[in-house]
Amino acid sequence: MNGPPVRVNKSFLFEKENFLKLAQLVLGLASLCFAVGCFPNTVFLYCEARLFSGNQLFLACCVNGFFALITLLLTLAHLCSLHDVYYHYNFPMLEKLYTSMATLAYGVGFCVLLISVFTSPFVAQWILIIVFNLATLGSYAYDAYLRWKCEYVL
Q1: Considering the domain boundaries, does residue 74 fall inside one?
Q2: Residue 154 falls within a domain, yes or no?
């Protein structure tokens, strides 16, 4: 392939979609930590880092862990300007589909989380996992909205 070399993108922090991507990464990792360590359950009425149900496993692995890892890889790809090197692949369309899929998965995960909260006794610490998952859902939904409205300069 005759493309430009892999290099560090010096304007990485000056593009607004990268700020949003970093926010998604931080919120996703925080949501993952809370999904593992402080998931609503009926056994312990405090935060305990144990696996209690399939709902917790779904939220931690299938939603938070998977999308935090893929967001990390896409962030590193933007940092190293891999979208210029592999110009044969349509990175903007890939990210449109990725953010839409992440929004849908976080929406389903948030519904699963709310069902787990409503079926167990209420503890104030469980508000944290709700807030972080809702913030992560909002960041992916806003990113998907901007990408489908073509408000990012490509």
Answers
A1: yes
A2: no
* pTM metric for this prediction: 0.87
Which positions of the chain have pLDDT values less than 70?
1-6, 84-87, 151-154
Q: Cβ(21)–Cβ(75) under 8 Å? A: yes
Q: Kindly state whether residue 23 falls inside one of the protein's structural domains.
A: yes
pLDDT tens for 51-76 read 888 888 999 999 999 999 999 998 88
Give whole-number Cα distances, 30 to 3, 33, 82, 96, 128, in Å: 37, 5, 27, 23, 10
Domain count, the chain: 1
User: Does residue 39 lie within any of the structural domains?
Assistant: yes
**Which residues, in sequence order, are CB contacts of 92 under 8 Å at separation 6+?**
147, 152, 154
What gap in Å lies between CA 76 and CA 5, rounded to an integer?
15
Domain membership of residue 140 as a residue range: 12-148
**Residue that is written with structure tokens 């890889």 in the block:** 73
